Amino acid sequence: MRKFTRSILRLLSIGAVVALGLSYLSAYVSPEDFWPLYFVGLAYPWLLLTNFIFLLIWCFFKKWYALLPLLCILLGWGHLTTFVGVNPSNGEGKLRVMTYNVGLKKQMKYKERTVLMDKIKAVYLDAKNDVVCLQEITPVDKYYASTLEEAKRKGFQYYHRIANTSLTILSKFPIQKSGALSFHGRANGGIYADVKVKGKTLRVYNLHLASNSVTTSTNSLIKEGDLQKKSTWAEITGVLRKVKRTSIVRAGLLGEINKHIGLAPYPIIICGDFNDTPQSYTYQQIKNNKQAAFRAGGFGIGSTYAGAIPALKIDHILVDESLDVVDAEVIHTDLGDHYPLVAEIDW
User: What CATH number belongs to 95-210+253-346?
Assistant: First the structure.
C-alpha cells in the first residue's frame, strides 16, 4: 500500500511539474493561437504552491524526486519574483505613482456608495501620491465633479480624462499633452498624459483592458455553487467562455497599444488594470523590455485582486528602463474589488 501511494504521489508530482512548465510557456503563446494555454498560466500561483508542497514531501522522504519541482520552480524564477517581491524598501523617489481600479464589489444605493467612495478617495488622494491613474471612476455624476474639486485642494491641480470613459489621470505636476488610445469599442480603454516632473517629462499611460465581467458569477459560484447540480456546471462553463473570449480580445489590442507606446517621445510609465496576470501573453508583450515595478521594488505577495478569486495579480505598473524603481507596494484595503498598487520612481 505504501509503495502504491508513493507511485501515485510520483505521478501527481510529475503532472504538477509539467503543468507549471506549461504555465511559463503561456507567456509566449497568444490566446488567439492556442487559448487553452491561457488558463494554465492563470493557475500559476496554485501550480507553484502545489510544486512547493511536493518539494517538501520528497525532501521529507529523502527522495531525489525533490529535484523535479525544485528545478521547475528555479526555472521560473522570473515569474516567481514577479508574483512574490523580494526587495525591501529603498526609500522614496522623485515621483510616487498609484494605479487603482476603484470599482465596487457590489451594487448599492447612492448614499452607501458615496460613503464607501469617500473612503476609497482618501486612499488615492493621499498626500504622498504625485500621479494617480484611476479605472472605473464614473465621470457622469455630481460625486465625480466634487472629487475633482477635492483633488485640486489636495494638490492635484492637473487631470486628464476622456468623455464616455471611466479612466482618469490625476497629477500634482503639469500635464503638457494628453490623449487617448482608440480601441474601436473592443475594450475598456486607454489614455495618456505627458507629465513634467522636476524638469523631466514622462509619458504616463492609464490602461483598462477588456474586463472578464465574471465577478458576480464567480462570487455566486464560490458562495452557493453545488457541483452536483447541472446549473452550477452551466455557470462554470459560462465563466470560462467569457474569460476565453476576453483574453483573445486583449491579445488583439496589442498591435495598437505597442505601436502607440513605441512612438512615445519620452520615458514611459504604464499603469492600469490589464485584467491579465504576469504569466499572460498580453502582459508580457506590453511589458517587453520595461521593468515590472513590483518585481523591481516590491516585497511580499503581489496579488491585486480583492474579489472572490484569490492570488490574482492583474493591476500593474511598468516602468521605462531609463528610470529607477526604488519601492513598490500593494496597499491592502477592504474597500473595493482591487487593491491599489504604488511605485516610487527615481532617475
Answer: 3.60.10.10
